[in-house]
Amino acid sequence: EGQVVGYTINQESVDLNSYLYAEKGYLKSMAELLGFDEDAAKYEEEAAALKDYINTNMYDEETGFYYDLQINEDGSEKKLLVNRGKGCEGWLPLWAKVATQEQADRVVESMLDEERFNLDVTLPVTSADNDMFDPDKYWRGPVWMDQAMFGIEGMKNYGYNDEAVELVEKMFQNAEGLLSDGPIRENYNPVTGEGLHTKNFSWSAAAFYLLYENACSALKRGC
Asked: Residue range 122-130: average pLDDT?
């Protein structure tokens, strides 16, 4: 009846839309294999429209980064949330292969900046120059390895192979316990390397393996 039940959020998220773009590509490939040509064409068209929407509406030319959109109450206005600063959602369009090369170059510039994301433990969820950055506070600064993995794979998609490996090596060397017998943690302080929150965290373990396999082993370099 037009009434919100529970909780909703008044924004369009660039990470969610990047996931949806990638899914349309997977569905198109599946449809082609199954001989569903009309479905394949539909997903291809939808993906192209979504790619254009993300690059046109969620990328800020001035700061060279992707941001979420805030929506007013009736949905008639949308505002690019540059004022919230840079976060890990901004590199998801690189992982999904949505960005142009020029847009990707600008995003990677921030990812490699030692005043932003290239800290001792690399690729925190919030840029260090963000006013809300706190290296210990949940979703305000720690490093989640799965989110870092999206960033590393995104960099590789646009030709930054060596730089990606350097960030992974730096992370592995400085995150507490990763190269010893310590437990793999949910997240890590990007400044001190301290392991934070839950121990023996399964998706961190999976991302740790994939970061090594994709970024280091695949390039014939050991971390």
From this structure: 95
